[in-house]
Design brief:
The complex is a heterodimer.
Chain A lengths: L4 H10 L6 H19 L34 H4 L6 E2 L2 E5 L6
Antiparallel strand pairs in A: 1-2
Helix pairs in contact in A: 1-2
Chain B lengths: L5 H4 E12 L38 H13 L7 E2 L1 E5 L9 E5 L8 E6 L5 E13 L3 E6 L2 E5 L6 E7 L6 H18 L11 E11 L9 E4 L4 H20 L8 E5 L4 E4 L12 E2 L6 E2 L2 H9 L5 H10 L5 H8 L2 H11 L5 H19 L10 H12 L5 H11 L6 H7 L8 H14 L1 H8 L6 H11 L6 H16 L1
Parallel strand pairs in B: 11-12
Antiparallel strand pairs in B: 1-9, 1-10, 2-15, 3-4, 3-14, 5-6, 6-9, 7-8, 10-11, 12-13
The chains are: A mainly alpha, B alpha+beta.
Chain lengths: 98, 486
């Protein structure tokens, strides 16, 4: 499996990232190197091996009791927000017209 | 050749995606409250705000609720399931991805049986139900900005996906009602469509009858009531049929239903890509449900509406209509069952609940849990009817008094002098005087106009203020009239 420069452009667009043409070229090469490395897995016979979704195979004991704990005090909530208005996070308008 | 109407030529194919907000105390991956209403951004913490470096920890109750629904839908519950990231950008999704389930959901294939308008049953396949987190809420009508409230961010959702087995707006509404009823009986979702705790999107396509391939589908969103689900789906079916009849094509797109205008129009949004790049969430190990836990939940399942309807008709001998009304809401069936423990006259009980109790509760918009007449007192009122102490008509008057009077119905009947007059001697006197006062009507009756009997019954009821035992009045009238002919 390999990717083209158009694949990289597409992934960049989905990720809302912008790159120069030369960066895109070098990403394409790097991505393909990673994919080549991963291709080694295809040399193995994995017919009877179940897919591994997580390095920790067993999820036992990871559940939390449904008990309410304190949320953030309101004066801390917006400390990292670029803009705040009426106790809301304020962002550039998402929908062009109502 | 018979010309078919366009509506007969085409077959609609509909699948529903229902999002049920789960009634847990806390969010799915953090301990913030799900309480509603709350001031904006008051139930938030670094986890549901999507701050870097935080880790989600799954809520036990959310999993339990999902298992309950799985059991209720006869689904395969996957004892091992996987959480995945669904990646997209939107301001109300602070992490830039929604934690959901993709390739291995907690609830697998199941089914839901619905009753169609003509009374026949139909099974609708349920593809899956998976756990995920809700997004926040955006407000768009504030000047140049969009304002975001993240109280809802991280509230647990169960997304329930049906097979494309639904064939009309009415079937869709019926599926949704039945599903909502189950969610209410399981007590895992409050089912309020107007407030958005139960949301429904529809995938709709049409195809020529007999065709096995699917047509191009559209997705309709923003239908916030049962009525709107039915209307919006019928609107979209008609729109697609019109397009095809004009030789045009259906374009795959998402439409927003506008209830005020009664139309659906394409959604306008900057969210232009639907390539979600799902992948297993490295922050969450696989969800494992032990056999013991699963069996425990199974053993604690409440009786579901379909089973109740069966029991009410078979054990209590109620007509299916009554059983349907009494099981519509969990609180109605609880009220009925508690009262049924005190009287064996189930049909009379059912009548009183359907005609009086539910009417008053609806008018006053109160829950039966806080209804002024407790089930036991209602049962006593029913017994007064069946034992002949009062008539069904008088029972309504006693019922009205009981709404604001905590006395037992017997006491009210005694105090207000409402006992039925079954005493033949007393009734005979009354009837004789009525016959004497109305010789013309007696003559008509004797001449064969038997319908006039109703006039005499009416007179007796008038004189006794409705307290005469109708059966006794009838038999006495007949015998006294017979005597006057002889």
């Amino acid at each position: 499996m390999s990717v083209t420069i158009d694949d990289v452009k597409y992934i960049a667009k989905l990720s809302m990232l912008k790159f120069e043409e030369e960066e895109l070229t070098s990403f394409t090469q790097e991505f393909n190197k990673i994919l080549e490395y991963m291709d080694q897995l295809n040399e193995l016979d994995l017919t009877d091996v179940a897919p591994l979704y997580h390095p920790i195979e067993t999820g036992k004991g990871q559940l939390r009791k449904d008990e309410v704990k304190d949320s953030l005090p309101i004066e801390k909530t917006f400390l990292n927000a670029p803009a705040e208005s009426e106790q809301h996070f304020s962002v550039p308008k998402v929908i062009k017209e109502k | 050749m018979i010309e078919l109407l366009p509506t007969e030529k085409y077959e609609p194919v509909i699948g529903l995606e229902v999002h049920a907000q789960l009634k847990t105390n806390t969010k799915i991956f953090c301990s913030c409250s799900t309480g509603y209403p709350a001031p904006p951004n008051s139930n938030v913490c670094p986890v549901c705000l999507g701050h870097p470096g935080v880790l989600p920890v799954l809520n036990e109750s959310a999993v339990e609720f999902a298992i309950k629904l799985g059991i209720a839908l006869n689904s395969r519950v996957n004892l091992r399931s996987i959480f995945a990231r669904k990646n997209y950008f939107y301001p109300d999704l602070p992490k830039g991805y929604q934690i959901s389930q993709f390739s291995l959901p907690v609830v697998g294939e199941g089914e839901l049986e619905i009753t169609l308008e003509d009374g026949t049953k139909k099974k609708i396949g349920v593809t899956r139900a998976h756990l995920e987190e809700d997004a926040g809420k955006s407000i768009h009508d504030r000047g140049d900005s969009t304002l975001v409230d993240l109280n809802r961010s991280g509230v647990p959702l169960l997304e329930i996906v049906s097979h494309p087995d639904i064939r009309s707006g009415a079937e869709a509404a019926s599926y949704l009602r039945t599903l909502r009823q189950i969610l209410l009986y399981l007590d895992i979702c409050d089912g309020n469509m107007e407030e958005g705790s139960l949301r429904c999107d529809a995938n709709i396509s049409v195809r020529l009858r007999g065709e096995t391939r699917f047509g191009t589908k559209t997705e309709v969103k923003n239908m916030n009531s049962f009525k709107n689900v039915e209307k919006a789906i019928n609107f979209e079916i008609a729109r697609q049929i019109d397009l095809l009849e004009e030789g045009r094509e259906v374009v795959q797109q998402t439409l927003l239903w506008n209830a005020d205008k009664g139309t659906a129009s394409p959604m306008r949004s900057k969210e232009d890509s639907h390539d979600y790049r799902y992948f297993p969430d490295p922050d969450l190990p696989p969800l494992e449900i032990s056999n013991e836990w699963f069996e425990k939940i199974k053993s604690e399942m409440p009786e579901l509406p379909a089973r109740k309807v069966e029991r009410y008709t078979n054990e209590f001998g109620l007509p299916p209509y009554d059983a349907g009304v009494l099981t519509q809401q969990p609180e109605t069936s609880r009220y009925f069952e508690e009262a049924a423990g005190f009287t064996s006259a189930r049909k009379e009980l059912s009548n009183l609940i359907m005609t009086e109790v539910l009417k008053v509760a609806n008018e006053k918009k109160i829950s039966l849990a806080e209804f002024a007449i407790e089930p036991k007192r209602l049962a006593k009122l029913v017994d007064l009817i069946t034992s002949g102490v009062i008539s069904g008509k008088i029972a309504k008057d006693v019922f009205a008094i009981m709404l604001s009077d905590e006395s037992e119905p017997e006491e009210i009947v005694k105090r207000e002098g409402l006992s039925q007059i079954s005493d033949s001697d007393e009734l005979e006197k009354i009837i004789t005087s009525i016959l004497n006062d109305n010789p013309a009507q007696v003559a008509e009756y004797l001449a064969g106009k038997e319908k006039i009997l109703g006039f005499f019954v009416g007179q007796v009821m008038k004189q006794t203020k409705g307290k005469a035992n109708p059966a006794t009045v009838n038999s006495l009238l007949l015998s006294l009239l017979k005597r006057s002919s002889g």
